[in-house]
Amino acid sequence: MARTKDFDEAEILKKAIALFWDKGYNGTSMQDLVDGLGISRSSLYDTFGDKHQLYIKALDTYQKNYGGQLCTLIRESQTAEMAIHDLLAMVVNDLLADKQQRGCFMVNAGIELANHDTEVNQLICQTQNQLEDTFLSVIERGQASGEISPNKNPLALARFLNNTVKGLQVSAKSSTDRAFLTISLKRR
Q1: Rounded to whole angstroms, how far apart are CA atoms 11 and 24?
Q2: What is residue 183's three-state secondary structure?
Q3: Which pLDDT tens digit goes with each residue over 33-92?
């Protein structure tokens, strides 16, 4: 008969995200995970598999939670300009609230592992595509409403904004200056 788990998997995943975010995949040992998660090594293996499987699950959980926040923000914005502004403001505010200056968990994973880890690369690409698609839908909505010029290539604008977000996330690892990270969307 299988034993019942005496821990909350969602809480363990939150702790795993924090550990991997702080130390990176390569910098986090199995002992770090056992100590930081507060579960036995056998429970870790039985529930999540190996360190790599736990890392993939942590990245996937982070992406779903953060991606869900972005999609909700976009849906609730009244205009395309407000959606873009609010999304960028949310990114900057999240980065500035992180006193450890960890940057973005997904961007960090991409920098550390995406070029030699197929599963991480796939998750990073999915995340980038989701954000790009979100920006694309907002831009197309803005073009339909007349807020954004229909003469602009919506995919090019979406990629520009996507790369702007990634740039902010990398820049926040070295700067916590709000003025440096804040983007003005006011028309000139």
Answers
A1: 19
A2: coil
A3: 999 999 989 999 999 999 999 999 999 999 988 877 877 888 788 899 999 988 888 888
Per-residue pLDDT at 155 exceeds 90: yes
Distances in Å between the Cα of 169 and the Cα atoms of 23, 41, 85, 97, 122 are 17, 33, 16, 12, 20
* Cβ partners under 8 Å of residue 109, min gap 6: 20, 25, 55, 59, 120, 123, 124
Instruction: With H, G, I as helix, E, B as strand and everything else as coil, classify residue 152.
Output: coil
Q: What is the 3-state secondary structure (H, E, C) of 7-43?
A: CCHHHHHHHHHHHHHHHHHHHCCHHHHHHHHCCCHHH
Interatomic CA distance for residues 63 and 32, integer angstroms:
23
How far apart, in whole angstroms, are the C-alpha atoms of residue 78 and residue 154?
A: 19
DSSP state of 5: P
